[in-house]
Amino acid sequence: MPRIxxxxxxxxxxxxxxxxxxxxxxxxxxxxxxAASVLGAPLVVPAHCDSWAHFSxxxxxxxxxxxxxxxxGCLRTAETGEWIDLPF
Length: 88
Known about the structure:
alpha+beta
C-alpha cells in the first residue's frame, strides 16, 4: 500500500437533524483518531471542524481523542485562515 504523508480529515461531528438520521456528517473526534491510526499518516490536519453551529465537537475534543489514542504527535491544527508548515 502506498504511504500517506498527510491526512486531511473532515472532523467536528457536524450534525444536521434532517440529514443522516442525526448521525454526524463529518468524523467525530474518536472516529478521526481511529481513521488516523488505520491510515498511519505521520501528519493529520483537521478540516472544517469548527466555526459553524452544526459542529457538535470542538478542537479540544479532537485534541483529547488524539491524546487518548496516543496520536497527539501527528495532529496539526491551525486557526481559521492560518497556514500550517509541513516538513516536506
